[in-house]
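Workshop exercise sheet. Pairs work together: one partner reads the sequence aloud, the other fills in the structure field after running the prediction. Swap roles for the next sheet.
Pair: D.N. / O.F.
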Amino acid sequence: MSPHRRIPQLLLAAALSATLIGSPAATAATPGRGVPLRVATYNIHAGAGMDNVFDLDRQADELRLLDADVIGLQEVDRHWGARSEWRDLAGELAQRLGMYVFFAPVYSLDPARPGGPRAEFGVAVLSRYRIVSAENHEITRLSTQDPDPAPAPAPGFAEAVVRVEGRPLHVYVTHLDYRPDPAVRTAQVADTQRIMAGDRGPKVLLGDFNAEPGAPELAPLWEGLTDADPGAPTFPARDPVKRIDYVAVAKGTAEVRRAWVPESAAPGHASDHRAVVADLVVRGR
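Structure field:
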């Protein structure tokens, strides 16, 4: 087993034993009609807002206002560097919000000081419901840490299984390639489809896709997923002009009741992206 796969599993074990503050959401099932669930996705820009000021308090406040049961985070630092004060952003946000956490690094670098924590950057799942299993999958990536990168499998595609009123729900969080050339995103979409096809039951994909809904490279996703269209752009946070952040659900397993892009209440905006929130009804067991 590679170090990339061992690290998330160890983090999950720690999260399940130590990071829950509070109790699962009081979401009640309607007999025969599914379970209501609020999900959200948010690119946290390593803790900084549009003003490039690191302020995790500001982001915690924004996330708290969403009142979501499950949240996918992107651009998450864990002891990464000075820009985020060497802090564990996913762990801190989970503790403040009273949620379980699974962090899946894209990069896991040797510590700056011997014996120190590894410098990591990736995505995360926050959940009011217990995370019963999790995995950090590899998808095609073009590394930003390699001076001469070539597309290759690398970790950072998170999958967490949460049990919602007895129903197992697969939650995936991703951050697709940002470059104008869609070639890597095309490969990542194919990888995403392959990984998700291996799981049965309700599935939710959350993330920053770095492409708008009509982009040709995203078209295969919409064959099996429903885009919870919030009807508003998400990027940049100040005067957004395009939607590149998504909540998507497996067809036939969940109903989208409504979706929206909340206004930011924070001066300077808490991130350079806006969140997407969706109210779902999850079906099946």
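Discussion prompt: Residues 60 and 96 are 7 Å apart (CA to CA). What would you look at next?
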